[in-house]
Amino acid sequence: MNGKSFKLLAVILIAISLNSLVVAQTRIKFARGRSAATMKGTVASGATREFWIDVRQGQTMTVQVTSGNNKIDLEISGLSGHLEWGDNGFAQVEINESGNHTIAIRNAGRAATAYTMTVTVR
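^ thats the sequence. predicted structure below, dont judge the formating
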């Protein structure tokens, strides 16, 4: 392998590793007097979007995600780790500890897709 090929390979490997580490993160806040919020956006193929939300122990969080390709993986995590995997874009979990929780959506499709996500906490 000559010097140019090695440098090109190194740049490609760095770009791939950086791409896997970059995750868009958004804080979810409810409007005054509301218990639900809806977010819309796009997510690239293989990319993950993370949403942070502050919830209290004993509350129930419901997450519904629809997308153009129907290939969105959904995971809810708490302070102690994984809580729930979404099934067909739907997840519901009773919160067992107060604090920041993460909702992660990943596009498992082969192209970017639009999504709509509604989060309800009661």
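The mean pLDDT is 88.
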